[in-house]
Amino acid sequence: MKYVDEYRDGATAAALTERIKRTVSRPWTVMEVCGGQTHAIVRFGLDALLPSALTLVHGPGCPVCVTPIGIIDQALQLASLPQVIFCSFGDMLRVPGCQGNLFDVKAAGGDVRIIYSPLDALELARANPDRQVVCFAVGFETTAPAYAMAAIQARRQGLSNFSLLAAHVLVPPAMEAILSAPGCLVQGFLAAGHVCTVMGYEEYEDLARRYRVPIVVTGFEPIDILEGIAMVVSQLEAGRAGVENQYSRSVRREGNVAAQAAVREVFEPTLRAWRGIGEIPLSGLALTAAYVDLDATVRFRDPLSRFAPAGGEDPDCQSGLVLQGLLKPPDCSAFATRCTPENPLGAPMVSGEGACAAYYRYRRRNDGSGAR
Ligand code: SF4
Q1: How many domains are contained in the chain?
Q2: Cα(133) to centroid of ligand 1, in Å?
């Protein structure tokens, strides 16, 4: 298949692997930021091709995984309100809050709908003028423009029954939090190609300069990832620390300026808690003052204020360490025993981009108890 097979070619992969082996002369630790890259690495066994001196660690780039339990609980509460149609991408429905998940709310009679685009939620709002449609806005910079456009369209169409539960997170502040954490092992990054398609990579240049860390904007197919790794280790071995673009078939330095303008019109950076990691300044998106009337937490302030969730994260879940690249999923004691995709204790086992789900799917031993 064109545009797929050429990025999965065995001979090209072997040549890149050889190039990496010839380049690496000492131990290095490189983090792939995005969960999509993690899945490709685990699925295609790319880490097994690399020299033992080169360690890949998995980053926090799964938006489902890092959405904090407090916002999941707000989603559960909003979805339980009789006047609300609650819309979400399917991955979010199984993410556990303090008291169950969105599937549980749906089973109890809540009107929870799976959507494939925020514009689907707008359509629902148009078709149900006597109901309130709340759209769960989750993702990184990649999906923020679509939610911004939904808000702009809602405003233009005078839809007073549409709102957003804003939970977007931003990648560069998370990378900075990882780099400034005590004991950080990460010496180079594969940045997420789709995020940079929207945002460009100018803001990564400052990070690379201040932390002396090479960053390579990288795609998601095996050849993309091996080439991105080769570019990072070339910089590391040469003592360079800059931003390079492996994913040039999609990414420009300035990004998609029209999409960025839509996001800036509707959202602004805010303090955000990351599940398992904690609060990171200016790492989330909140609605601007001009769009605050579309903020579901404002529109439903009264019912949300009466809600007092009991419980919290499962104490066995070590997703915070997994999301910072400090623990491989099979080293979590609950992996594939108490925690499975059918019965997840933490979000990284739920999402299609979660590291724990990747290891469960591709690296589980036949007895189901750990990695191969
Ligand atoms: S395997 Fe399950 S319990 Fe362990 S860190 Fe991953 S999601 Fe949490």
Answers
A1: 1
A2: 32
